[in-house]
Amino acid sequence: MQVSPLANPLATVAQLETSGSQIDGIPRHLENSIRFAGAQLTQAAGILLRLPQEVIAQALVVFMRFLVGPEGGSLAEFDVQQVSAASLYTITKLSPYPKSPRSIINVFAYLSTLGTPTPTPDQLQQGKAEQYYVSEGTYQSRRLVLSDTEQRILKALGFNVHVSLPYTLGITYLQALDVFSHPRASDLAKRATAYLNTALLSPQMLYLTHQPGSLATATIYLAAKEVGIKLPEVEWWEVFDTDREELGFLVVGMLSVGSFAEEERAKWQGRKVPMTVDELEAEMKREDSGE
C-alpha cells in the first residue's frame, strides 16, 4: 500500500515507551531536557544558516525521530549537537538550500561558545557566526564526525527522511473555512503558524505522533479562539480527519510547551544543560551524589 506524500511515518507505542538513551541508563527527565535543548539549538543553527523555517522544521523532525525508540540513537553515545548538526546537514542536502560541512561546523562551533541553546536575537545575527572559524585540524575531525553521524541517522531511520509539514495544509484549511474574508485573517494565519513552530519543541513530540492535517487543524482551532474569529459551529475539524479527542490532546499539548519551557529555564538556571556525552556523565554523577 502506497503511503500518501502528505502523511508521515509515526512513532509506534514501543518507540514512545523507551529509547536508546533510557536503555543506556539516562533518566527520562534528563533525556527530555537535553532533547528540548537540542531542538532549540537546531532552530538557532537553522536561523544562522539562513534556512527557511520549513527546512528547519524538517531537520527538527529528523532530529526527534533519531532519538526515539530502543533502536534509536542514544545520548550516551552521541553529543546532542552532533545529532542536531547531522540532521540539518542531511535535510539541507535534499533541499534547494544545501549547506557545506564547513558552514554547519562553523555555526555549531559559534553556538557552542555561547553556553546556551537559546541565543539572544543579537547573538543570532548571521554576521557574528560567519566571522567564526575553527582550525583546519578541528574542521577535519568534526567533518568526519558529521559524516558518521549522518550515516547513523540514515541507518536508524531506514534511509527514510521524508517529512511532510502542516504549514501549507493549514493555509488550505483556512481557505476551505472561508477565513480569509475576515479582516483579521492574517492575524489568525500568523498565530496558527506560530503554534506550528512551537509544536516542533513539544516534549510530547507531537510531530512524531500526529499527522500534518491534525496538527494544522489544532493550530487553527487555537489561533481562532485567540484572535477572536468565529469558526463554523459544527464539528468542522472532522472534515479534516481529526476527531474531538485528538483535537483536545493536541490543543493541550501545544499549550503546554510554554509552561514546559519555563520549568526547564527554572530547572537549569545558573547551570548548563549537558550537551555532550562527557557533560551528561558529569550531570548524572552529580544527581547520583545528591548535590
Identify the notable features of this structure and list them briefly.
291 residues, mainly alpha, Cyclin A, domain 1, 14 helices, 2 domains
What this model shows, in words?
This is Cyclin domain-containing protein. GO terms for molecular function: cyclin-dependent protein serine/threonine kinase regulator activity. InterPro entries: Cyclin-like_sf, Cyclin/Ssn8. 61% of the residues lie in helices and 0% in strands. The model has no long low-confidence stretch (mean pLDDT 93). It folds into two domains: 144 residues, Cyclin-like (Cyclin A, domain 1); 101 residues, Cyclin A, domain 1 (Orthogonal Bundle), CATH 1.10.472. It is globular. Helix 3 packs across helix 5, helix 5 packs across helix 8 and helix 12 packs across helix 13. The chain is mainly α and 291 residues long.
